[in-house]
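Duplicate of earlier report; TerF vWA domain-containing protein input re-posted below.
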Amino acid sequence: MSIDLRKQAEDNLIDLKKKATISLTKRGLNGQVARVAAVFDISGSMTNLYRSGIIQKTAERALALAMNFDDNGAADVFAFGLSNHEIGEIYQANFYQFVEREITSKHKLEMGTQYAGVMKQIADFYYPGALKLSRKGGFLGLGSRTEYEIDASKFKNDPPVYVLFFTDGDNSDKEETRELIRGLSRLGIFFQFVGIGNERFYFLDELDNLDGRYIDNANFLKVKNLEKISDDDLYDSLLIEFPTWLKEAKAKQLF
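Output:
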């Protein structure tokens, strides 16, 4: 490991933190406390993004936000393909080469993409026991659908959760994801979906405008090239809807 490369990465992280602080101040979020989750697609189509180091850079950008939001200065990292994985915390002392060390060396890229599993994992991680599965409608089970019931009564004093969710493509579990987003709209979790690349991302657009939610708990940002978008522009774009959600969520006593 090159000491010079690590020192350069550490200096860059401090610079990223300053840039994140500027964007947060613009949105009136300076001093806002939130838990931060960084969620990464590990489907096979993401191969080049991992090999090129772009996902490592993205993890560092997410960490810089967490260093402002989280009282521990850390982000909780999750990964998903056809299955889902809790990776662990990324923070200032362990961020260097985190993605290679904790994700790609331990998890093979998977041949498919499902969102719901990791979303449920995140809900259970921050709000254990709050999410309950139920079946609604249908005769003898025919035509019934999955719904999620929420009991958040014991989590009213917990800080909100800001989820950065990075993916480069479509998922195969759309209906379950829709119902999950509807159910989770009664918890203090905000999903910032980031679509990477040239896909049209019709489904993420749909989630951004999904009906039947208690509160609008998701936003979608398309980034054609994560390497080319500036840090300032990325942070400004990631924080467009979060302040509005915070106000509404507080008004409805989600936290």
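The mean pLDDT is 93.

Merging into the original ticket.
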